[in-house]
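Re: [help] complex structure
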Amino acid sequence: MRTPVRIAVSGAAGQISYSLLFRLIAGDLLGHAQPITLSLLEVPALLGALDGVVMELADCAAPLLHGVSCHSDPVAAFAGADVVFLVGARPRGAGMERRDLLEVNAEIFSVQGRALNESAHRDVKVLVVGNPVNTNALIALSNAPDLPPENFAAMTRLDHNRAVSLLASRTGHNPSDVEGVIVWGNHSTTQFPDIHHARVGGRPVIDWVGRDWYEQTFITTVQNRGAEVIRVRGKSSAASGANAALEHMRDWVLGTPEGCWVSMAVRSDGSYGVEPGLVFSFPVTLCEGTWRIVPNLPLDDFSRARIRASEAELILERDMVRHLMA
Ligand code: NAD
Ligand code: LMR
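Output below.
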């Protein structure tokens, strides 16, 4: 039997985790031959509710689940973890921007960054899902100096999936026919969903949808989709967020198909002129557990201006939390 992979999830009694955990034990992350253990982190007040989630996990009688533990201490929760989903953080409500959460959530990621540094497996893969994701990931990695910064990423996969879905429905194709979409920058309304390199059915997407619809409808629809879900549902995205987290991590561990890229927010190495050190969403390919920013894509002035605007927002966010960065 294979050694179980140790997966830690924070915010385990919350709504995203309520979808994520049951997909993890079904084998949707690592396949149906890979056993896992779950290490669940919650605030002390919700450990009781978390017991209920653990009862439901047990009631699935899932053959892949080889153990569950619950914690309110992050050092204990992350001990030996191979894969970590940092979901635990407050979600925004109607009328808020994600960066309004910085004040309440940022501290969580400095504490958890230090905990990861202390106890996680040295090859751990850490995905930040709690908002505002880019800057929270920056805080976490800067508090984990003994772990490679490449082990941290923030989630823009939901934005990527939203862009793919919208293009598929606009062009009358299946989402699997859409390739080459990029979400650049911050998981916020300054994100830049870019279709200049995207193709559907073998043809450039821009030829299908036209420049006017792209500039006037598509970009703002993707940028504002999270707020629109909150307006309609009354709560922020949960199952689609869990699905995106799972797809992000699965590609990170298992790799992207030859010639395909996905969007992932990672520490900038200066590619495309983005300030080094910021956690910025780029097109990446993944192979053997390692990401690589797709190099040298041509950018027009329209794209460059939007990338710069998102970079400027991330610089502002970083400057707001400098006191939490080690
Ligand atoms: P939720 O309120 O349902 O659950 C969050 C859980 O985190 C709660 O149970 C809470 O007790 C727990 N928590 C808070 N502080 C914690 C800490 N220090 N340690 C451990 N657990 C802690 O929220 P949710 O809907 O599950 O969303 C979680 C986060 O994910 C939010 O910040 C939300 O905005 C974000 N989100 C991001 C994306 C994305 O695309 N990146 C998508 C959806 C949601
Ligand atoms: C999303 O994009 O759905 C999440 O980031 C939740 C939010 O606040 O929009």
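The mean pLDDT is 97.
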